[in-house]
Amino acid sequence: MLNGRIVYVGKTGDLRRRFENYRRGDKNRYRVKQLIQAALADGMTASVLLATPGASEWNGLPVDLVDGLEAGLIRAVRPEWNRVGLA
């Protein structure tokens, strides 16, 4: 979030590694790293919201709540930094 506005929705199995990838700016995270740096340079306040839904199943089948939550949030919020949200 930037100044209380959701700008990016993502998922990770390892939050520390995800932030390290942004810090280093690896090829898959470089675009978002630049966006974060520009926002902070402009004096914006960044916040991270974390959801950790547990395992679930439906009729004995595993249900991935993380994938469903991420997709639903992107569809509902259409965060400007998500390329999917731009479509």
From TrEMBL:
Family matches, as InterPro entries: GIY-YIG_endonuc, GIY-YIG_endonuc_sf, Host_DNA_Degrad_Endo
First and last residue of the signal peptide: none
Occurrences of domain GIY-YIG (ranges): 1-83
Gene3D superfamilies per record: 3.40.1440.40
Lineage top rank: taxon: Bacteria
Record's protein name: GIY-YIG domain-containing protein
